[in-house]
Structure formats: structure tokens, C-alpha cells
Prior knowledge:
The protein is of the alpha+beta class and 203 residues long. It is built from 6 helices and 5 strands, in the order H-H-H-H-H-H-E-E-E-E-E.
Amino acid sequence: MNPIIDPNIAYVLLIVGFVLSVLALLTPGTGIVEIIGLFSMILAGYGIISNPSHYWALVILIPFIPLIFVYRKTKKDYYLIISIALLNIGSYMIFKSESGGFSVSPVIAIVVFLINAPILWVVVKKIIEAIDRRPDFDPSNIIGAYGEARTNIFQDGTAYVSGEEWSVRSDQTIEKGEKIEVIRKEGLVLWVKKINKSDRRIE
């Protein structure tokens, strides 16, 4: 007998496939996670069609991934809780026993739940927090910032602005140590002008 046909193995593969699919959707990468997730889903699908199945359980299972994205948008924890619950309940209920009940071992289902639920809870929350976090430094905010020339500047030079060394350019001669103001940004180069004594005092 092909072990993939065993409902318990197919159940585990289905859970693994869905978990990896979510991680792949949230953090597209090298493709390894995607490949493993897809392979697990294919094997689980083979196990589903090879066994008596409650296909109505797909109604419980399918909302798992959409609810993850609802959680990402709303940041309401109960969407993530419902999503994890639907994944485990739907995956368990889809495999039908000969008597019409559920063929997956409850012990295996509990163990798998205790493993995947904390992983999904922590990893999904951390990934979404990282994705949605505003960058510590917003390049657009550097326009109008003040700094100090670290070299003599004419056309090219270096200046200290917003806590970093920058390559700078200017249409005027600026001597080392003079105060400057950023007037625009082109790629990784700042265009600056000299702060004159008549300009407002720089703290």
C-alpha cells in the first residue's frame, strides 16, 4: 500500500503544504519554500482523492489563506486565530472513515495542531510586522535637512547629514566645516547649498 494514501500522512502533508504556502506568499524568496509547499500539497491532494473524503470540509479549509490576508490588513488577532482553527479543523475533517466519521488519528491531529498553531501565530505575526513596519529612515525627509561639509565642496564632495556621510554636489564653492542645507536628492547623491549668516541659525 502506498503510504501517501494513508489519511494520517496525507493530513500532515496537507497542513505542511498550507503552512509553507502562507510563508511563501508573505515572503517570496528563492523558491525552495514554494517548491516544498507545492510538492506537499500535490501529495496531500493525491491522498485526498485516493481516500473516502468529506469534500464539504473544503468549505471550512479554503478560507484559511484569505483570512491571513484579512489579518494582515486589519491587524485583529481573532482573524488569525480563526484562520489557524479553520486550517486544523478543515484538514482533520476532510478525511472520511469507512463508518462515515473522520479517519485521521485524533492524537496525530492534536500533536500537529500543537506544532503548527504556535508556529503560524508567531511567524505570521512577525513577518507581517516586518513587512508593514515603516522604514527607520525615510529618504524623502532628508530634503531640507541641515548638515556640515566634511570636505571642500564644488561639484563633488562629502557632507555629514542626518547622522550619515553622504556624497554631495553643489553649484557653489563650500568650504570644509561650513553648514549646508539639502535642496534635492538624486539617487545616493545629495545636492546642497551653503547656509549663509543671514539664514536662520542652525542649532
